[in-house]
Design brief:
Largest sheet: 2 strands, antiparallel
Strand order of the largest sheet: 1-2
CATH topology: Ribonucleotide Reductase, subunit A
Radius of gyration: 23 Å
Shape: globular
Strand content: under 5%
Distance between the termini: 74 Å
Number of strands: 2
Oligomer: single chain
Structural class: mainly alpha
Low-confidence stretches: none
CATH architecture: Orthogonal Bundle
Bound molecules: manganese (II) ion
């Protein structure tokens, strides 16, 4: 008689045993397995909501890969870019560079839990998670490679994380903190719970909806396919959180949630907010960034918090205020420093400005004059007049320029510590830094390195230091100042 799936799966998931030659603490040292360190008895109720056997995993993943590869081969390579908006292509280049190798780091994180997670069912889920993350690296590397013949900067899909480009330093700083330099418990809360159930919806589901409307069906298919994996392995977070809360770890859990919520928000402003509202063609914008945040992130995540009796992060009001302005301020910074990016940056055209004003009633009043000023610079001093030359102030926690200013409120702040003056873009970044000083004080931002003579001060040399070959790889205005053959009609507001 063959055993049915449900006859053996529970036994196969739960294979922890009692150690006779070593202590449990030697097998799962707190440095790797995490704190609070609890005996296995406390973990044995660890259960994932959706169970998967290895057999099911392999056949599902194979079908998913076939579906993505099917779309890829249905598109003749010669016509790969046909019908794609130029702004959209920059978004894909941005996304690929910022995420392909972060996914690979995600595989390392999952493998850490696959060894040091405290229950065998957790380790099993994490093993499948590691296989997922390898796939999430391979898909963009493959699709990015197909793009190379049309645009050499698609090599940043692979190259970005091997450089000192400032946006990548910010992303690496976050991902190192979130999961490479984290133990299994912190990882499960930070990566699986906060990032994967809270924020990656936005980058993957929302972007997939837009990709569909932007007629980039291969990208849509790839994103949606990746997100189905995330939905499965992100469930690691909940039972870990539950065990922590039941065993005196609630404060620790609240700290990790607050910290990661803010850090993810900061990066997503840069990665998603600006890209969604300045690179996606208007007809493909299904919702605004703010609407996506409200519906997909805030609503779902606050439900999660309530379920576990956790509080909203203490900086909630500031976070809500920023939904209207932070990514718009940041876009101005991206535009002014575009030569330090590997993709082109757009100045909103007349139609986009209408759309922005509709979604953000104060947009025109607050941000309109800045863009008008840049228009005037283009007319009088040309491209050179529209670029920033001074070094931006960079936050010593999130590593992003402190560009989240809006009328009546500059959120930047400082902290004097051990003879060094640290700068932060906001109170929550300073708070995180203060909670984990030993983790963050030694790091130098790009600007700190320039001041200390560890990175070149001249822009041309700085490009080189960041891995950007000027002028071929450095970012430009999406529609202006390009080689004549790339030039499109100049938009006017
Ligand atoms: Mn992934
Ligand atoms: Mn993941």
């Amino acid at each position: 008689m063959t055993l049915g799936r449900d006859d053996w799966l529970d036994v196969a998931r739960k294979v922890d045993w009692t150690y006779r030659y070593v202590s449990e603490e030697e097998v799962f040292p707190p440095e790797m397995s995490g704190r609070p360190w609890l005996p296995h008895d406390a973990w044995q109720g660890w259960n994932e909501a959706y169970r998967t056997t290895y057999r099911e995993y392999v056949s599902n993943q194979r079908a998913k890969d076939d579906a993505v590869l099917g779309v890829r081969s249905a598109l003749s390579k010669v016509h790969i870019l046909e019908g794609l908006d130029p702004g959209w292509l920059q978004l894909v280049k941005f996304h690929n560079g910022a995420l392909a190798l972060a996914e690979y780091a995600g595989a390392v994180a999952e493998l850490r839990m696959a060894r040091f997670g405290r229950d065998s069912a957790w380790r099993m889920m994490a093993t499948l998670g590691a296989l997922d993350e390898i796939r999430h690296t391979q898909i963009p590397l493959l699709l990015g490679h197909d793009m190379l013949r049309f645009d050499g900067n698609f090599d940043w899909t692979h190259k970005a994380y091997h450089t000192n480009e400032w946006m990548i330093i910010a992303a690496r700083h976050l991902f190192d903190d979130m999961f490479l330099a984290a133990d299994a418990i912190d990882l499960a809360i930070q990566l699986n719970l906060v990032f994967e159930t809270g924020f990656s919806n936005l980058q993957f589901m929302a972007m997939a909806a837009m990709a569909d409307r932007a007629s980039h069906h291969l990208f849509e298919k790839a994103l949606a396919s990746i997100q189905t994996d995330e939905a499965r392995h992100s469930q690691i977070g909940h039972p870990v959180l539950r065990t922590l809360i039941e065993n005196g770890g609630k404060d620790r859990a609240q700290f990790l949630v607050d910290k990661m919520w803010w850090r993810c928000w900061r990066l997503l402003i840069a990665l998603t907010g600006s890209a969604m509202e300045y690179l996606v063609p208007v007809e493909a914008r299904t919702r605004s960034f703010k609407e996506f945040m409200e519906e997909w992130v805030i609503e779902q995540f606050t439900k999660n918090l309530a379920e576990f009796g956790l509080e909203r992060p203490w900086f909630w009001d500031l976070f809500l205020e920023e939904l209207d302005s932070a990514h718009h301020s940041f876009q101005l910074g991206l535009y002014a420093y575009r030569t330090t990016l590997w993709f082109d940056v757009a100045m909103p055209d007349a139609e986009e400005r209408c759309w922005l004003s509709e979604k953000y009633p104060q947009w025109d009043e607050i941000f309109g004059p800045f863009w008008k000023r840049l228009e005037e610079e283009w007319a009088t001093n040309g491209e050179a007049g529209t670029l920033a030359y001074a070094l931006p102030a960079i936050c010593n926690l999130c590593q992003l320029p402190t560009l989240f200013v809006r009328p009546g409120k500059n959120t930047a702040c400082t902290l004097m510590l051990g003879g060094r003056n640290y700068l932060f873009c906001s109170q929550p970044c300073r708070w995180i830094f203060e909670q984990q000083k030993e983790r963050f004080t030694d790091h130098r931002s790009v600007v700190d390195r320039i001041v200390a003579g560890q990175a070149p001060g001249k822009l041309i040399d700085l490009h080189d230091w960041m891995g950007l070959e000027a002028p071929t790889e450095t970012g430009k205005d999406l529609r202006r100042g390009l080689s004549p053959w790339r030039l499109e009609p100049v938009p006017t507001a």
